Amino acid sequence: MEKKYTIMVTVAAGLESVVGQELKNMGYDVRVDNYRVFFEGTQADILRANLWLRTADRVKIVIGSFEAKTFEELFQGIKALPVEDYLNYDSEFPVAGRSRNSALHSVPDVQSITKKAIVQKLQEAYHVRTRLPENGFFAQLEVMISKDQVMLTLDTTGPSLFKRGYRVEKGPAPLKENFAAALILLTNWNKDMPFVDPTCGSGTLPIEAALIGRNLAPGLTRTFDIEKMDWFDHELSDTIRDEAEDKADYDSELNIKGYDVDARMVKIAQENAKHAGLSQDITFGHMDLADWYPEEEAGVLVSNPPYGERMGELEAAEELYKTMGILYKPLKHWSKYILTSDLNFEKAYGQKATKKRKLYNGQLRVDYFQYWAKPNFKK
Ligand code: SAH
Q1: CB 283 within 8 A of CB 194
Q2: Which ligand 1 atom is nearest residue 289's CA?
Q3: Do 128 and 91 meet the contact criterion of CB atoms below 8 Å apart?
Q4: Which DSSP letter does residue 309 get?
Q5: Alpha-carbon gap, residue 153 to 356, rounded angstroms
Q6: Which DSSP string corresponds to 313-377?
Q7: Which residues form the THUMP domain (predicted)?
Q8: How far apart are CA 85 and CA 256, in angstroms?
Q9: 379 pLDDT band (50/70/90 cuts)?
């Protein structure tokens, strides 16, 4: 039988259930925890997760876990793990470390003891008596201790999954691509509905919407660390990537628009969309949101407006929220989703949200204010 791995997908705070749902939609049984989601899968599944997950950070393999309260237990526990299944005698393997609520709290010591134990294990497994060269394939390990439970993981992703590779320029306040995708997956939007972002900046939301609408795997334009590892079945790279390309939907008509009051940002958004191969799928325009009125009776609007975080800018931001309220409230069949850190948003907008969701935009605590549409039965 094909080997199964325990896979740990790491996630930004607040998005665990979104990543869990993405994996369930891919057909996996998941266990959702804080900042991470676990599932069991083959090498093909690991590559699929890297290619397809829109809202996760990284896909890691759990090499093993055990309890340790002393450095000796840590050393022996690590040495007992099958690290030689994942590392060659010449692999370059930095060991990152973390410790929380544990007897072994000195992270540098935990890291160096883990490294020592792995070096010894590899020397024995590969019959090498000299120093390990570490000039082979790259394998980022991490040793994590929480309540004396040690877990050793191997990163299969490389640069975080939010780095899709399409962004050429970003402007002053870009959303991370995986966070933008999550904001969209939290709405009721689907590819047959109009989508508009009235404050699009560098275009992250419209671009992620187009990727979702076209059913394009966000990782198709990049590679992952696992694809360079010796023990990985390299034929899978072609098979799983071909499988992903076959799933793309180039036929549906998309109606995705992005506007910004700053003409330079519109140019940047157009460049980024072009780089993502989505120029034909998104209409970007230079417009003040006060001048927008939808042609369509129903649709979904997602906005990441200025938050007024910097001194003296709050008033202007709240003035903008007020304008939004005046314009958007009458659009009964449009769902509106607005992200901001301003706790006074609803007051400025002039309407209580149907639902609020607590999220983190990077380090910043924000709320996702949702105004759900009334059903449009005429459709
Ligand atoms: N989500 C974007 C960042 C948006 S930052 C990204 O990922 O890049 C907020 C944007 O709102 C800025 O680009 C700013 O130019 C724009 N903005 C501010 N006031 C506006 C207005 N009145 N109408 C339209 N856009 C506005």
Answers
A1: no
A2: 23
A3: no
A4: -
A5: 35
A6: -HHHHHHHHHHHHHHHTT-TTEEEEEEES-TTHHHHHTS--SEEEEEEETTEEEEEEEEPPPP-T
A7: 45-156
A8: 46
A9: very low
| DSSP structure string for 103-125 | S---HHHHHHHHHHHHHHHHHHH
- Express each pLDDT in 234-248 by its tens digit: 999 999 999 999 999
Residue 283, pLDDT > 50, answer yes
Pocket test for ligand 1, best of 170, 200, 364 (most atoms within 8 A of CB): 200
Which of 44, 48, 60, 66 lies closest to 11 in space, CA to CA?
Answer: 60
**Count of residues making up the chain:** 379
Residue with tokens 């992903």: 244
CA separation for the pair 298, 142 (Å, rounded)? 48
pLDDT grade for 53, boundaries at 50, 70 and 90 = very high
Contact 24, 10 (CB under 8 A): no
| Most ligand 1 atoms within 8 A of CB, residue of 202, 261, 327, 340 to mutate | 261
CB 342 within 8 A of CB 318: yes
pLDDT at 376 over 80: no
Give the separation between CA 232 and CA 309, rounded to whole angstroms: 46
Angle subtended at Cα 202 by Cα 197 and Cα 204, rounded to the nearest 5 degrees: 60
Mind giving me the DSSP string for 230-279?
A: TTS-THHHHHHHHHHHHH---SS---EEEEES-HHHHHHHHHHHHHTT-G
Structure tokens at 99: 């410790």
Q: Can you read off the two tokens belonging to residue 375? A: 């059903």
Average pLDDT over residues 300-325: 95
With a Cβ cut-off of 6 Å, ligand 1 is lined by 171, 173-175, 198-199, 201-202, 204-205, 260-262, 265, 288-289, 304-306, 320
Q: How many CB atoms neighbour CB 202 within 10 A? A: 26
- Mean pLDDT of the 88-103 span: 98
